[in-house]
Amino acid sequence: MATLFFIMLIGAALIWAGVVGLLFYAARKRRTYSEQVAGKVILWGGALFPAVVLAALLSYAVWLMPNVRPWFGTDDPGLRRIEVTGEQFWWRVRYLDQDGAALFETANEIRLPVGERVTFSLTTADVIHSFWIPVLGGKMDMIPGRTNRLSLLAEKPGTYRGVCAEFCGTSHTMMAFTVEAMDPPAYDAWLATRQSTGGQDAEGHALFMKNGCSACHTIAGTDAHGVIGPDLTAFGTRGSVGAGSLGNTADNIARFIREPAKVKPGALMPHYAMLPVAETDRIAGYLKGLQ
Amino acid sequence: MKSFIPREIETLWTLFTAPVVWALHFVICYAAVAIFCAKRLPASFDFDTMRIALFVVTLAALAMIVLAAWLAWRQWGFGADDPPHDEPTKDSRALFQGFATLLLSGLSFMAVVYAAIPLIFIAECQP
User: Can you tell me the distance from the alpha carbon of A270 to that of A108, in angstroms, rounded to the nearest whole number?
Assistant: First the structure.
């Protein structure tokens, strides 16, 4: 993509310089040319030259397309696949194996191996969202009833921000995710060992279960298997609380549990302001401790 | 030979020939690929057959545009007279129309070529 951009940029700069050069040449001194010469300049410079240059650039861009937009089925088996579902107002992320079966699910965080192309299957559970990691490439809409494909390549390790780029409701601006580009060995190790112990805090976990959190949330390695809300496995390592709404601290988690709709208008999670503060704090501490 | 080449007539319809061919070519290309990929007819023929069929359609469209351009060129007097052809006479009107048709034919020719370029590079239907 970057190569395409620079080639287009250089082409545009050369043409611009040529046109401006001609302009200066024409303006510097009064010259007279016959109408035939003027006609020839128009025919060659105004019609044939742009036609040929545009044909070349178009061919080059179209030729690149299979690389930018690969599809499932015909590609090499080593292709990394991630399925992302947009929901109001968070991201359901499933890592897939070679056959397209889900290895595990997580939310609001995507990890990528550096230097390896990853193919995303993008869909939505409710309204139209748009998946966008500005640093890595263009955006792609998530449309109800459709699965769109997008292929991205992270070239440098680091933490990037992804956002929803299509207005999807009141908390559209609070629908972000973190992208962690990792070295391939570290990525593979993370994929293989991504097993949560369920945390060390038995009392926190008991409160989590007692107050019904597990009806909507899953924590791998425990008996919390809800699928309505975001998966909370290894929640403590996430970049944010509430899909980019707040920093990931125990205080913010507790605040979100007590009043999700105040932090994030339109959030579907019910509030738990009726719980004793000590309990919500304990649950928040438990969630922050999930590694 | 004479019977093959249409007589020179004065009508506005000749002006539209090339753009209409361009529009039809565009619709045929896009509709054919869309239907082929939606219906998935793997048993009947593969994508390369579709590619070749559309390539033939493209050649036919280009041939028709070239013919329209040649007729326009003839109407323009093979370039014997220069524009702008703005006299209020029948001759000037015919020349103007011929020249305009010739330019439109050139535009349509390039447009058909551009629309056909993806045919070379497109690999397969996407699921």
Answer: 19
Q: Is B79's Cβ below 8 Å from some Cβ in A?
A: no
Among chain B residues, the shortest Cα distance to A59 is held by B117
User: What whole-number percentage of chain A has pLDDT above 70?
Assistant: 93
Q: What is the pLDDT of residues A1-25, one digit of tens each?
A: 677 888 889 989 998 999 999 889 8
Whole-angstrom CA distances from B119 to A243, A258, B26, B123 are 42, 57, 12, 9
Report which residue type is found at A46.
Answer: G
Question: Is the model's pTM score more than 0.90?
Answer: no
C-alpha dihedral (A234, A239, A243, A245), degrees to nearest 10: 130
Alpha-carbon distance B86 to A223, whole Å?
86
CB contact under 8 A, A62 and B126: no
Domain range annotation of chain A: 2-26+35-68, 80-193, 202-288
- Residue ranges of domains in chain B: 45-79+92-127
Q: Of B113, B118, B124, which is closest to A74 when you measure between CB atoms?
A: B124
| pLDDT exceeds cutoff 60 at A206 | yes
Q: Report domain A202-288's class.
A: mainly beta
The token pair at A246 is: 């707040």
Look up the ipTM and state it: 0.77
Reference B66, options B25, B110, B31, B9; nearest CA is B110
Nearest CA distance, A38 vs chain B (angstrom) = 12
Nearest CB to A55 within list B114, B118, B122: B114
Mutate to test the interface with B, among A34, A57, A58 (most CBs of B within 10 A): A58
Confidence band (pLDDT; 50, 70, 90) for A68?
low
Homologous superfamily of domain range A80-193: Cupredoxins -  blue copper proteins (2.60.40.420)
Residues for chain A: how many in total? 291
User: Does the distance separating the beta carbons of A58 and B126 come in below 8 Å?
Assistant: no
Confidence band for A195, pLDDT divided at 50, 70 and 90: low
- Does B106 contact A47 at a Cβ distance shorter than 8 Å? yes
Quick one: what percent of chain A has pLDDT higher than 90? 22
Backbone torsions φ then ψ of A112, nearest 5 degrees: -130, 145
Residue bearing the bigger pLDDT, B40 or A191: A191
Pairing mode, strands A90-96 and A102-107 = antiparallel
